[in-house]
User: What shape does this take?
Amino acid sequence: MKEFWENQAKQFKGGMSAVNFDLMEEELEHSLLMGLLRDNTDICDVGCGNGRLILHFAEKLPGARFFGMDFSENMVASAREEAARRKIGNAEFAVADATAPGAFAFGARRKFDTVISKRLLINTKGRGKYTAADNILEILKPGGRYLMIECFIEPLQRVNDIRNTLGLPAITVKEFNEYLTEGFVSDLAGKFTLERKVDFESLYYFISRVFNAGLSSGQPKYDAPINKLAVKLALAGVAPIEGLGPETLHIWAPKSV
Ligand SMILES: C[S@@+](CC[C@H](N)C(=O)[O-])C[C@H]1O[C@@H](n2cnc3c(N)ncnc32)[C@H](O)[C@@H]1O
Assistant: This one.
């Protein structure tokens, strides 16, 4: 699996295709985060890939200090290269495996106001998810927040049931991915308090994976007009349906001991 991400970084460098083919989804993610990240704070992105999120926000929030970690050397190299090319001085990157116990105990023992994981946990399996969550808890400042933007299996199953009624094939999860379950959310509640859950992509996912897929002959295009319309509505705060978007934001506060 690590090899897959090393190759993605080698092939696509700083491009979005290294980490996600769905440009519309990234637009929704960035808009969601824009309302949550603050200038002059310490922000960490675990499983940062080629640094797209950090580099985007480092320019928008010049007073914030960003730190990205990824277990792929090529991803980190690509993030550093891009930061240097764009002369971004408030972003650092390091190689670290989120599933290794104590992996984030870097020299200065840095702590963060906000820690983000965006489609990182879905790349970990079994206990690895819990170790990653423990590592994240370790690097949060008191009063900090963990923004967990991860994919869940239950909404995907609901979308696949709908696709099935139209004769569309099921959307499958890559063999090295393991989507989260509602059970994992209950388990995290032992160490974190769930402040808010934001179902931000149901409208877009339903339109793109059911309507656009149903109307398309051949491979549906991510930037199809109907998908753009769905994103426009979602960005305007229109959310007429829920429970049909695998990617969900959970905002967690560390439990004080
Ligand atoms: C789907 S990509 C998402 C990248 C980025 N968070 C984004 O949303 O654009 C998953 C990333 O997680 C990284 N990754 C997977 N397992 C990891 C682990 N155990 N520790 C650190 N990074 C990991 C991969 O190298 C890859 O860059």
